[in-house]
Amino acid sequence: MRALRLLRDLAAMLPRLVRMVRALIADPLVPRPAKVALVALAVYLASPLDILPDFIPVLGLADDLLLAAVVLDGVLNFVDRSVVLRYWPGSPASLDATAAVASRLARWVPGRIKARIFSR
Prior knowledge:
single chain, about 0% strand, mainly alpha, 6 helices
């Protein structure tokens, strides 16, 4: 039951997250590397081709989740917080909680790879 509620909440939040990404891409205050990373993430997530196919239980979504966490962690470290909060679909506390989870997941990716994603 709890997992089903979580999936419903995530599905309900998806349109707001899509609007947020669109708004960040259009905002002139967001640096170009962050925009490129957001566009690349959106294309990857929408693509039927994955590093690990989604039909593989648990692992199929792990690559999507890890990549999303790395990009989110990078955006939150690269873009001014006030700009992100302008478009964030939740409260500042929910952004902080999401940022903490993204940061923990992003630690699994070597720093040189993360730095390359957001290099100018």
